[in-house]
Amino acid sequence: MPLFTDGPASTIEDLAAQDSQVLDVASVEGIDLTRKLDLAQEAVAIDLEAVMRRTGSGFTRLDHVVVTPALRLWHTYRALELVYGDAYYNQLNDRYASKRDRFADLGKWAHERLILTGVGIAPRPVPRAATPGLTPTPGAVADGTYYVTMAWLNGTGEEGGAAIPAVITTAASSFTVTPKAAPSAAAGWNVYAGPTPESMVRQNDQAIAPGASWTQPAMVRVTGSAPASGQPPSYFHSLPRILQRG
What is the domain range of residue 174? Predict the structure, then answer.
């Protein structure tokens, strides 16, 4: 599961899964769905941080919050409410107003589910990695195109979200993977590679040191663990029941 601060809690695909017409509506009405996801993230962040501060918990910073299914649903419905609110004010179409109100109600329902389950907390959060650098190096990796990603590890071995993959094509060569600057929580990192984004598997046996690079051996593994979306919560923090804004 990703951290809340890794990026919007849901995706355009999540919006379409909840409302099959949203892509067409966005196209017709000139609505930027990516921007609506960002705005929904800001709105949820304000509400979530305010609620967490009311609990007196030591974990009030959002970079400790894990995106659980309930939190993802809340964000999805909030984004859809914004989409149809924008569409309504464009056309004053009652059908859009009805959908706006429906998703507002569903957002309240998802918020209640979050109250019931609690907010997932990672005491030692590991942020999603940035896309690593790839450079050709001498070696004998089979000629072809490879997708490569990486993920940071904290001191207890929990893995953060994997980076957007980098791509390299080899020809009688290998490649070296160089991570961007390590976050403060990083104690090491894992590297994943494969001929397609879906087939990437872990290539290293032991965690790689934060300041070290990785040069791919001749054999690219095709079986093993795939990159994860992020670390799971260590526990769930209870939330008080308060009225939502709006």
Answer: 133-215
